[in-house]
Amino acid sequence: MTGLDDDDRTLGGVGAATGMAQLGEFANALAPGTRLNEFEILSVIGQGGFGIVYLAHDLTLDRRIAIKEYMPSALATRTQAMTVAVLSDRHAETFSAGLRSFVNEARLLAKFDHPSLLKVHRFWEAHGTAYMVMPYYEGITLGTMLKRLGAPPDEATLKALLHPLLDALELMHSAHCYHRDIAPDNILILPDGRPMLLDFGA
């Protein structure tokens, strides 16, 4: 992702970055060195309204990955080293609905294998919240790219972006799955120019 500079646009939130952030900038973030199963947290990529994305090391496969943690900052806080708790009873139902949506998104993404769809390696629930493990990508959002261009993109650029995205959407739609939140800030542009769809609106 790009540091989640567009609220919670991940990998997503997803997992890629144009630069690492300092942990002190983010409330409720897990500390470097924290272990989540076979993964070790290295730093924070970014934090949005509903989640925190970390750069982590896969100790089993010896590779960098991204981990997205469900952490809606307006609804919950970290009460202990790893435990996430709802701020008050009146937020419990909303928190639970968001958690279900987070897990459903991870389960949905894990079903697909397409170069323009964010891949989820695994996901699980623990410590009062949930996590999804994704590849670590570097890139910028289409929204950022368009701002940097300073002028509308030409036809060739648009076709190069649209073809793989439409192909990815066709695959999803054939499985009766819908993104529901396609926007420039939810499309990551990788260094090789390949576009990738991020956070699902569903």
Short description:
This protein is an alpha+beta fold and 202 residues long. The chain is built from three helices and eleven strands.
Helix share bin: 10-25%
- Secondary structure: number of strands: 11
Tell me the structural class.
Answer: alpha+beta
Could you describe the largest sheet, including whether it forms a barrel? 6 strands, antiparallel
Low-confidence stretches: 1-24
Total helical elements: 3
Strand order of the largest sheet: 1-2-3-4-8-7
Mean pLDDT: 85
Supply Rg: 17 Å
Based on Cα principal axes, name the global outline: globular
Return the string of H and E elements.
EEEEEEHEEEHHEE
| Residue share in β-strands | 25-35%
Report the span from N to C terminus.
19 Å
What does this structure look like?
This protein has 202 residues and is an alpha+beta fold. The chain contains three helices and eleven strands; from the N terminus they run ββββββαβββααββ. It has helices at 92-111, 142-149, 155-174, and strands spanning 35-36, 39-47, 51-58, 63-70, 76-78, 84-86, 122-126, 129-135, 140-141, 187-189, 195-197. Strands 1-2-3-4-8-7 form a six-stranded antiparallel β-sheet, covered by helices on one side. A three-stranded antiparallel β-sheet has the order 9-10-11. It has a two-stranded antiparallel sheet with strand order 5-6. A hairpin with a 4-residue loop joins β3 (51-58) and β4 (63-70). The chain is globular, with a radius of gyration of 17 Å. The two termini are 19 Å apart. The model is unreliable at 1-24 (pLDDT under 50).
